[in-house]
Amino acid sequence: MEYIEWFGTHFIGLFQAGGQVFVGFMTGIIPLLIVLLTFTYSIIAFIGEQRVTRAIQFSARNIILRYSLMPILSVLMLTNPMAYTFGRFVKEEQKPAFYDSVVSFLHPVTGLFPYANAGELFVFLGIANGVMEAGFNISSLSVRYFLAGIVVILMRGIITEMITKFLMRKENL
Predict the structure, then answer these.
(1) Which residues, at least 6 apart from 161, have a Cβ–Cβ distance to it below 8 Å?
(2) Whole-structure pTM over 0.85, yes or no?
């Protein structure tokens, strides 16, 4: 009988803890996400959608910008999963590398811009809790993670483009 009571108490406790987390999100992170998303779309509207499109088309011509600026803009402006649609601005043989860059940036962006990939927020917050308990600053973690993400997406994009071109030449495509 004791085990059944223990199970019943802890089973409902699991759902109570989940409810507390949910209420915390409703009063904390969700309003933040809505405001950040509104801000991003306001900036795009202020600059002008045509200007933003021209800037993206320009950056698609340069390999450094294609695998650094473009993935950053696509993730920040369109969020996950719409960020992949920026691939329409690159040539066919560059699409796998662009996709690789975008998908690789979806987690590092979470610390500074949680709205961009809210699904990864839980992972980042878990890491951030450990960093806080160790006595370090979450802001520092977020900035370093963001900057490391830029380096990684640039490297992955260039390497994936080289591999794609090699394979396409090998297959005579």
Answers:
(1) 63, 67, 93, 94, 96, 97
(2) no
Give the start-end residues of each E strand in 4-106. none
Per the structure block, which two tokens stand in for 151?
A: 């380096």
Q: Which of 6, 21, 36, 12 is nearest to 109 (CA)?
A: 36
Angle in degrees, CA 97, 102, 104, rounded to 5: 95
Q: What is the predicted pLDDT for the residue at 29?
A: 67
- Structure tokens given for 130: 């450990």
Q: For 5-62, what is each residue's pLDDT tens digit?
A: 777 777 777 777 777 877 877 777 677 767 777 877 788 788 888 887 788 888 888 9
* CA–CA–CA angle 103, 108, 112 (5° rounding): 130
| Cα separation, 147 vs 26, whole angstroms | 29
16, HSE (Cβ side, Cα atoms, 13 Å): 6
